[in-house]
Amino acid sequence: MAAGGSGSGQPQFLVRAGDDSFSHAPLIENPETDQIIVPDKESWKNLFAYMGPGFLVSIAYIDPGNFETDLQSGAQYKYGLLWIILVASFAALIIQSLAANLGVVTGKHLAEHCKAEYPKAQNFILWVLAEIAIVACDIPEVIGTAFALNMLFSIPVWCGVLLTGLSTLLLLALQQYGIRKLEFLIAFLVLTIAICFFLELGYAKPDVGEIFYGLFVPQLKGSGATGLAISLLGAMVMPHNLFLHSALVLSRKIPRSLSGIKEACRFYMIESGFALMVAFLINVSVISVSGAVCNAPDLNKEDQMSCIDLDLNKASFLLRNVLGKWSSKLFAIALLASGQSSTITGTYAGQYVMQGFLDLKLTPWIRNFLTRSLAIVPSLIVAIIGGSSGAGKLIIIASMILSFELPFALVPLLKFTSSKAKMGPHVNSTAITVLTWIIGFLIMAINIYYLMSRFIHVLLHNNLHLAAVVFIGILGFSGVALYLAGIAYLVLRKTKEISHLLALTTEESRRLSNDPSKTSGYDLPNEDIVSMQLPQRIRTTNDVN
């Protein structure tokens, strides 16, 4: 099947004349491939056909990295960092919606757009940065799973780190029985621990006024709070999620009319909003429980010591009022489920990044093995040397890396979705453009502020020789300058005036869309995306109802 036609001779894609930048796109060759078909009529019932991608993406917002940063935020600053969760969740909804819109409108995901947009050298650097972000995302999953195995079977943390590779490969092997069933089981287990934290709120009795104050009054008390704020941002708005979401939406076969595309964008935003609201409530409940319990006046000495250096391996005592002696086991099961489900989505994100940037596909188990190996090495070293406390600190560092990496995925996304050449009539409105750039610049500003303040603090408070301090200072400031130059290049570079626009923006494409003999009104999703997560038969919204 050619890119512009189907087996019946009817064009499936509406492409602007003269644009061959996407001529190597991996389209579906087999019309019998399983896919979800959205009816070519406007109805609120179509929402059910769009349900799925947002919930898959939201798993990353309740992964072990989030639990770790939430627990430490509550233990150290009570409710003082809740506003970060609110801001990050709001920003995540807007940013994830833009990622979904990019895929829906253009029929290509973010990594594929980056490859078509940037020169080879810059494209390679963006790919390397994306891979580093995926490895940084995998580190909390590795350590969280190791902690879960330690709580369940008393396995040393360093041994659990080694076993995480086998556990994830086993879970990937089970997908042959149906990825949706597997994800439903994982989501159920994670929801179980969320319910437990909600119930614990009743026992902890946090001050509602203080919680609302923490949610709506921004405050950062000291560099420690700034570091945790960056970790919370990194754990909430992850770079790999932007690549993942823009790819997952391609698994639906939607009508290629203007109204059909608008409906898809609207329903994907509604679905993402609901999924992220659930994740937001879970994160708020974890911080509130941690803040209320660890700052209680009648806390016993043993729990006080746990709160001083709170990590995932010690957090089960927070649920003791609800679960009693089973608190450790159930928390471990939910932590295990959280880590494994996040790893699966990370593996898929890695597939799309590699396929988009390099035109290279790997089987999921090979892809997972490579990513997991890179994540296991630092996790194993830290677990052996620093124990569970060191492993917990590594989760915070990994989350900070994700925050520093975010601009290199976010800026291209904002540029592409603000480009009329790529998005046509579905381009971002002026208000959305201004708002998203403000969010992007605020994230970059807090990252740069923390990086510079910590670096200067290290330079001024050390026992090194003056020559060594000068040398380190030159290297450090050169690195910061390079970081800023990379962001400036992405921001200031003019977007190419070419597009693989599936939206109907040209007179020729509109005429095609109005001629039933020349177009079917649908586009086809990418082959690798369809085979990843769709059900075992063609399904419409009528089946759902």
From TrEMBL:
<feature type="transmembrane region" description="Helical">
    <location>
        <begin position="124"/>
        <end position="149"/>
    </location>
</feature>
<dbReference type="Pfam" id="PF01566">
    <property type="entry name" value="Nramp"/>
</dbReference>
<feature type="transmembrane region" description="Helical">
    <location>
        <begin position="155"/>
        <end position="172"/>
    </location>
</feature>
<feature type="transmembrane region" description="Helical">
    <location>
        <begin position="184"/>
        <end position="204"/>
    </location>
</feature>
<feature type="transmembrane region" description="Helical">
    <location>
        <begin position="369"/>
        <end position="388"/>
    </location>
</feature>
<keyword id="KW-1133">Transmembrane helix</keyword>
<feature type="transmembrane region" description="Helical">
    <location>
        <begin position="464"/>
        <end position="492"/>
    </location>
</feature>
<feature type="transmembrane region" description="Helical">
    <location>
        <begin position="47"/>
        <end position="62"/>
    </location>
</feature>
<protein>
    <submittedName>
        <fullName>Metal transporter Nramp6</fullName>
    </submittedName>
</protein>
<feature type="transmembrane region" description="Helical">
    <location>
        <begin position="434"/>
        <end position="452"/>
    </location>
</feature>
<feature type="transmembrane region" description="Helical">
    <location>
        <begin position="224"/>
        <end position="251"/>
    </location>
</feature>
<keyword id="KW-0812">Transmembrane</keyword>
<feature type="transmembrane region" description="Helical">
    <location>
        <begin position="272"/>
        <end position="293"/>
    </location>
</feature>
<feature type="transmembrane region" description="Helical">
    <location>
        <begin position="394"/>
        <end position="414"/>
    </location>
</feature>
<dbReference type="InterPro" id="IPR001046">
    <property type="entry name" value="NRAMP_fam"/>
</dbReference>
<feature type="transmembrane region" description="Helical">
    <location>
        <begin position="330"/>
        <end position="349"/>
    </location>
</feature>
<feature type="transmembrane region" description="Helical">
    <location>
        <begin position="82"/>
        <end position="104"/>
    </location>
</feature>
<keyword id="KW-0472">Membrane</keyword>
<comment type="similarity">
    <text>Belongs to the NRAMP (TC 2.A.55) family.</text>
</comment>
